[in-house]
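Hi support team,

I'm opening this ticket because the web form for multi-chain structure prediction keeps timing out on my end. I have pasted the exact lines I submitted so you can reproduce it. The total is 413 residues across two entries, so I didn't expect it to be a heavy job. Is there a limit I'm missing, or should I split the entries? Thanks in advance, R.K.
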Amino acid sequence: MSTSHGEQMMVEQIKAGNTKAFEAMVIQHQPKLLSSMIAYTKSYEQAEEICQQTFIRVWQKIESFRGDSALFTWIYRIGINLAKNNFASSYSKNSSNTTSLDISEHDISNHISPETDLIDKESESTIFNFIASLEMELKTAFSLRELEGRSYEEIASIMKCPIGTVRSRIFRARQLILEFMNQENII
Amino acid sequence: MTKEMEKISAWYDGEVTQQEFDSGLDELNASAETKKTLHQFALLSEVMQRQQKSSSKVQMIKDYFPGNNPWLSNIITAAATVLVTITILYQFDTNRFGVDDENQMQLATALESPEARSQLLSADQNVMDHLIHIMASNQPHGSQNISQDWIPVGFKQSQQNPAQFSNGRNNLFFHIENNKLNLTKVKYFQASNSWIYLIPLGDGRLLTAYGDVPPALASKMIQAIK
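Hello R.K., no limit was hit. The queue was backed up. Here is the completed structure from your submission:
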């Protein structure tokens, strides 16, 4: 899968040195990367540090990202390589060279939270039961987006409705699920 | 506020114009609340992806539509299993019945090769989309568009469900709408004791018939449908 239009805009901004775009990208991809690194390292602390190093590396190397793959795939590869290197060198906390960066580690670590790790299986199951109880139109649009990775245009075609309707259904589903997660103290 | 958050939701999905992308970035920079919302969207995506990794997509889709159309839901689960194992996938020839040689070749290759099996599965993604669409549809599959000529001999309409026809042993359900799949030939899928028939009609619509009616019983129906 290559980059989507939205990702291309994001990458162009980051390449142009836009730190706001970089920060937004970190917020967007951090939960997935952290989760992947926890699965790989079996350690929350190590995963957190690798995530931090990964995003620093992304900022340094973004010029070399050509868009042949999805942005997260590229980020994930960097993360895995760092994890392997760290593992090979018995994991030294002082191993990263971060002194010449415009983006400070502090900016990145602000967005690394333990939430993904804290959403346990029971809470996941509660969330999925809630999703199943949503109106058909909402859960269909949301599922096609989140599970199938379909574009709004494709979802509109499958659901036979305008793209604007898809957009509001996906948002409404997200809003209701997040409200529920808040109510249940899941997040 | 809701409209602003809706824009951030679309921004998160990358479904925005350049102008909306730029204003979304400004909004994120200006509002800690918006940043938090974006983070929560990402968190929710991760939870969804994590769940998907631990269970099959079809099972998840099925779970999301409990009780809506249990018959079709069960068939889709079974059909997906069949697609994965590639027990059988036939396409009728121009006489509307028979076996397409090319598909048999595909089938034989698929049985030998995981890659070919995967390709065959992808080729029928649109069909799966169509079935998910039917399953998610709230519209009653009424009998007003179902021609009596299509009903196999011995089958009668159910009083409880006008889209269901039964001969006492076998059940058949109908769904009809415009042919977005652009099928020109009849296709059917077998899933253990269930079958799904996709039958393009002469007027540009697509008849989807599903149930525990085997081809031997359905063949006259398929040949009668124009």
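A quick check on our side: The longest strand of chain B covers residues 171-178. Let us know if the file doesn't open in your viewer.
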